[in-house]
Q: What sequence folds into this?
């Protein structure tokens, strides 16, 4: 492959650091690397592939010469891509945005390479990376949807604190060290250590949170199917990294456990097990979506349940973004 000049906005955050690791591990053809972050990280040196690179201030970025620019914003950290992504695209780069700002823009493709890779071809300079919890769910359900069709999805998520960025990880660590104090800088609004919080994002329509509506709308957009009924309950749990999901689904056409198992065993990006289950601790640092506990609903025909686990900083963010860039090439 011809080497590319790669830009990274948000280079010092959790997702930014994961992106650099994934680019190196997947041997993406990086001919040049340019890094940006907020003013407090200006001048910091980051090593990549044995070479030092200086982080520039994002206040006045110059994207000229970049082929691909990753925006590594985490959930709840919006604004940078709205301000600067159009400028990067106008300078000739293809933007791959990990934030939420462009996901539901009809002109911007929302891509999971195992699910809808051809949507990459529709880009007009910006491609959106879906929400971390959406990514792992659609990777698990896509092979089932292709063969049997999906009529209804009910999902409950158990999302790690790293989904809220470095502040979420630091809040959990500080609260675990002090059993009586809630960290004032916590992004969660309530104590997370020893607790579960059934709110990710602000509450809006019908009492659902922003994260829950993301899963509904993004799933339909990625599958190109507005008829799928999706109901989500998203919960923050005191886990450092790795999101887990309990996924219930009904198929449009008759399906069996054996037929679904055969699809999952050969599905790209899926690691399936029928004799055990996966937890976030065990799959940390891996790029697959881990699927287990497939079982039928004994009360409803053509209805099933799954347990789905993935590393939210890897497949839920950085790895999916790099896979999109690979698809571009």
A:
């Amino acid at each position: 492959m011809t080497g590319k000049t790669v830009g990274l906005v948000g280079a010092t955050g959790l997702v930014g650091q994961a992106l650099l690791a994934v680019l190196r591990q997947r041997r993406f053809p990086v001919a040049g690397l340019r890094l940006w972050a907020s003013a407090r990280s200006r001048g910091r040196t980051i090593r990549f592939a044995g070479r030092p690179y200086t982080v520039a201030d994002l206040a006045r970025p110059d994207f000229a010469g970049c082929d691909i620019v990753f925006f590594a914003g985490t959930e709840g950290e919006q604004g940078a891509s709205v301000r600067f992504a159009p400028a990067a695209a106008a300078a000739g780069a293809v933007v791959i945005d990990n934030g939420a700002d462009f996901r539901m823009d009809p002109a911007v493709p929302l891509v999971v390479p195992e699910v809808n890779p051809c949507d990459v071809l529709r880009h007009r300079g910006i491609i959106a990376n879906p929400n971390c919890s959406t990514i792992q769910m659609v990777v698990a359900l896509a092979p089932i949807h292709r063969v049997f069709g999906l009529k209804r999805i009910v999902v409950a998520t158990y999302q790690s604190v790293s989904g809220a960025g470095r502040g979420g990880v630091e809040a959990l660590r500080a609260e675990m060290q002090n059993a009586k104090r809630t960290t004032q800088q916590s992004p969660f609004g309530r104590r997370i250590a020893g607790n579960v919080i059934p709110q990710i994002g602000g509450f809006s329509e019908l009492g659902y949170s922003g994260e829950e509506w993301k899963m509904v709308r993004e799933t339909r957009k990625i599958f190109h199917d507005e008829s799928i009924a999706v109901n989500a309950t998203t919960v923050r749990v005191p886990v450092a990294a790795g999101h887990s999901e309990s996924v219930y689904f009904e198929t449009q056409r008759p399906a069996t456990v054996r037929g679904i198992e055969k699809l999952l065993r050969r599905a790209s990006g899926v690691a399936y097990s029928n004799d055990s289950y996966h937890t976030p601790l065990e799959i940390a640092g891996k790029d697959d979506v881990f699927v287990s506990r497939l079982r039928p609903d004994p009360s409803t025909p053509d209805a099933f349940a799954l347990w789905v686990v993935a590393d939210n900083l890897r497949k839920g963010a950085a790895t999916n973004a790099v896979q999109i860039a690979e698809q571009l090439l």
Q: What stands out?
A: The domain at 4-129+317-328 is CATH 3.40.50.720 (Rossmann fold). The first helix runs from residue 14 to 25. The mean pLDDT is 94. DSSP finds eight helices and 13 strands in the chain.
